[in-house]
Amino acid sequence: MHDNSRLIVMGGSWGGIQASMRILQGLPADYSIPIVLVLHRLRNHEGSLQELYSKKLLLQAVEIDDKTPLEKGHVYIAPANYHVLLEKDHTFSLDDSELENYSRPSIDVTFASAADVFGKNTVGILLSGASKDGSSGLKYIFEKKGTAIVQDPDEAEITTMPLAAINSTPGCSILNVERIQAYLLTLHGH
Can 13 be counted among the known catalytic residues? Predict the structure, then answer.
């Protein structure tokens, strides 16, 4: 049953919330591929990303919990202070082990675990951000024959994250937000 299932994993930090919002706002409520969002936020920042996305998106925004199952039409948001891993049975597990790249949740951890479960059916998207987190995870997705997309640095609010990813994965696609959204719409329903 899981052969043709796909997963979209999207990561970012500074500027990544706005970029992901613009991409996801264009997707229909019944969008056929689950989307996982790993965003760095300030450790003491209490605002609920889930509420923010719920207000603006047609998709159902859910904060990830241990054992949450993947479903289409949903955007899954990594909770603060946990690494998010994907399991073979297409549920999540949370892990509060050491920071990776000074981050928890780490984009690298989620991207790599997604590629281990979904292989070539993984679409990794790295957005604006002020750290290098995500670049090794995106490279790993690419090595597993998944799709690697980086937000065009010319458009990104902070270029550190996109540039690090472009350097580590020369074969990635470099697209602006509008084209990332258009690409995701082409995957819908296939």
Answer: yes
CATH no. of 7-187: 3.40.50.180
Give the residue extent of every domain in the chain.
Answer: 7-187
pLDDT digits (tens, 9 = 90+) for 75-84: 999 998 999 9
DSSP secondary structure letters along 45-68: ----HHHHHHHH-SSEEEE--TTP
Q: Which residues pair with 74 in a beta bridge?
A: 60
Options 131, 133, 135, 136, the catalytic residue? 133
Residue 48 among the catalytic residues: no
40, 106, 113, 168: which is the annotated catalytic residue? 40
Q: In this predicted model, what pLDDT tens digit does every residue of 86-108 receive, in sequence order?
A: 999 999 999 999 988 889 999 99
Is 40 part of the annotated catalytic residue set? Answer: yes
